[in-house]
């Protein structure tokens, strides 16, 4: 139900691979689209040597793929030790609040005989409120009539009534409870400020209590909104036992700016975009899914359902 990019990037985090060699070198066989490579890491340097060209011989191809997949899965299982979920105002992972933003912003633009489309929405998604507001009034051409600050005040009044009715998205409850039960540390990183977050989650307090910690957009460490990595780096610092290595973190996102923020933080990203989002925004993510129901933890070395 989704697609994954080919694995070369994943090999870079195989620093605890079972293919450990004397002298501090780590190795893993990695299956690439046109070859099988032996990859090694020594003293921070990462090198891959091509072993075999991919052939059309089914037995050879299956055997090579099997070996490489085994090494790849073992590599990932040692690497993905933390998960961070994004939960911005316009995101759909846990509470379905995106539709509320769309509804309100359509009403505001209608007064100016303008329409709110997905090209504009994509530019706003994942950003801090004031940053998204500036994009909204400037890109829609209404900045002479409505300032970013005025837009936020007007939008806030309407959202306050809608947020408490938020419903969970398919797959969110199952995935969170599963990972928590298996001892996988989970955090939440969001551009939403405290007031909005509390409104959106007030019906789902038990589920959100499973998070190890939450970092909000008005956190003092979050100096800049996405695509700056601030919110994700702040979240990675606060896991029990000390800061998590960003390369050991898997992020779930649906906003293009959020995907970029996670990649800028040096993390892996699973994107679950709205189907109306242009597919050109999918390119940066490591994995793209239609729904959280399609996520297979074992593909990332996490405990299977």
UniProtKB/TrEMBL annotation:
Q: Look at the named UniProt entry and state the broad enzyme category this protein falls under.
A: hydrolase
Name one molecular function that GO assigns to this entry: metal ion binding
Catalytic reaction list = sn-glycerol 1-phosphate + H2O = glycerol + phosphate; sn-glycerol 3-phosphate + H2O = glycerol + phosphate
Superkingdom to which the source organism belongs? Eukaryota
Q: Which CDD domains match?
A: HAD_AtGPP-like
- What are the names of the required cofactors? Mg(2+)
The answer, when asked if Magnesium is one of the entry's keywords, is yes
Record's keyword annotation contains Metal-binding: yes
UniProt xrefs under InterPro entries: Gpp1/Gpp2-like (IPR045228), HAD-like_sf (IPR036412), HAD-SF_hydro_IA (IPR006439), HAD_sf (IPR023214), PGP-like_dom2 (IPR023198)
The biological processes this protein is annotated with in GO are: glycerol biosynthetic process
> One short Pfam family name for this protein?
Hydrolase
EC assignment:
3.1.3.21
Kindly state which keywords UniProt assigns to this record, in alphabetical order: Hydrolase, Magnesium, Metal-binding
> What is the name of the protein in this document?
glycerol-1-phosphatase
Species of origin reads Arachis hypogaea (Peanut)
Query: Lineage from the top down?
Result: Eukaryota, Viridiplantae, Streptophyta, Embryophyta, Tracheophyta
């Amino acid at each position: 139900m989704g697609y994954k990019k080919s694995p070369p990037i994943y090999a870079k985090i195989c620093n605890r691979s079972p293919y450990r060699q004397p002298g501090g070198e780590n190795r893993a066989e990695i299956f690439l689209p046109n070859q099988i490579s032996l990859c090694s890491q020594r003293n921070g340097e990462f090198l891959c040597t091509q072993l075999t060209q991919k052939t059309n011989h089914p037995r050879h191809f299956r055997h090579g793929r099997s070996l490489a997949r085994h090494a790849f899965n073992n590599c990932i299982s040692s690497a993905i030790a933390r998960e961070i979920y994004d939960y911005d105002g316009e995101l759909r992972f846990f509470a379905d609040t995106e539709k509320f933003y769309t509804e309100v912003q359509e009403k505001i633009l209608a007064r100016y005989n303008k329409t709110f489309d997905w090209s504009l929405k994509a530019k706003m998604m994942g950003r801090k409120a004031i940053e998204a507001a500036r994009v909204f009034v400037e890109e829609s051409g209404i900045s002479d009539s409505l300032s970013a600050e005025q837009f936020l005040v007007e939008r806030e009044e309407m959202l306050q009534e809608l947020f408490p009715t938020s419903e969970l998205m398919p797959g969110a409850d199952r995935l969170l409870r599963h990972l928590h039960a298996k001892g996988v540390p989970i955090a939440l990183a969001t551009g939403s400020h405290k007031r909005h977050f509390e409104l959106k989650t007030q019906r789902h307090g038990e589920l959100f209590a499973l998070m190890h910690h939450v970092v909000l957009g008005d956190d003092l460490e979050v100096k800049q909104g996405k695509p700056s990595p601030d919110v994700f780096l702040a979240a990675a610092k606060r896991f029990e036992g000390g800061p998590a290595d960003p390369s050991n973190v898997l992020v779930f996102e649906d906003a293009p700016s959020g995907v970029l923020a996670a990649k800028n933080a040096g993390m892996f990203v699973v994107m679950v975009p709205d189907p109306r989002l242009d597919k050109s925004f999918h390119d940066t993510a490591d994995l793209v899914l239609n729904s959280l129901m399609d996520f297979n933890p074992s593909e990332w070395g996490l405990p299977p359902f």
